[in-house]
Specification:
Blueprint lengths: L1 H8 L5 E5 L4 E4 L16 E3 L7 E3 L3 E7 L2 H4 L3 H18 L13 E4 L23 E12 L2 E9 L19 E2 L11 H16 L2
Parallel strand pairs: 2-3, 7-9
Antiparallel strand pairs: 1-5, 2-4, 5-8, 6-7, 7-8
Length: about 210
């Protein structure tokens, strides 16, 4: 009865939280210690999201969509697609072409032509994905429980990228991580967050 009363008093309401974090590494449920190469003094926090290790810091737009997928009428695969689409559209607002890679959630750019529209070519021959020439600019890590979503999306606007060199980002050895500033786009957290919020609302709305 207590649980039911609490649920009735505080019904689930879809929300999107946007924030920044102090410098921190977070490990997903499947996170392997070998992907933490040299964290140094940066804390490592175990989380209950999916995925491997990633890095958060000021200058990175963190979005936590809290969505009831059952009421929304779409489920995990489409939820991920919609999150990625919101990131792609946000980047496009600033002239950057973000793209998906099958089998590697998140958004990537071509380092030699981040503003062009050529299709990404990612090689895989019974081995690991080849990320040569690519940079990851947005990472996903979600948790879904009883159709409710937790955790979410991190989009790199203008941040210190050095700590990424101390991990295998998202479990991929040699994967380069990039931000919008490194691509020549002068956009701060305050510039990017409203754009991302707009696209998240548009693409997560049923």
């Amino acid at each position: 009865m207590m649980a039911a009363a609490v649920e009735n008093k505080f019904p689930w309401r879809d929300q999107i939280w946007l924030c920044e974090h102090h410098a921190v590494y977070t490990q997903g449920l499947a996170g392997k210690a070998e992907h933490l190469l040299n964290p140094g003094t940066i804390p490592v926090v175990q989380t209950n999201r999916g995925g491997q290790v990633t890095f958060h810091a000021p200058g990175q737009v963190i979005a936590y969509p809290l969505i009831d997928l059952k009421k929304a009428g779409y489920f995990v695969k489409e939820f991920v697609f919609r999150l990625e689409e919101a990131a792609i559209r946000t980047l496009f607002d600033f002239g950057i072409t973000g793209q998906r890679i099958h089998g590697a959630p998140g958004i990537y750019v071509k380092l030699d032509d981040p503003f062009g529209h050529g299709r990404l070519e990612v090689g895989q021959t019974n081995g690991p994905l080849n990320f040569d020439g690519l940079g990851k600019i947005a990472a996903l890590g979600i948790k879904v429980s009883n159709y409710k979503t937790y955790h979410g999306l991190a989009l790199n606007a203008s941040m210190d990228l050095e700590p990424y060199q101390r991990i295998n980002p998202c479990g991929y050895q040699g994967l380069q991580t990039i931000d919008m500033a490194s691509l020549g786009v002068a956009a701060t957290w305050a510039d990017v967050a409203p754009a991302l919020a707009k696209h998240l609302v548009r693409h997560l709305t049923p």
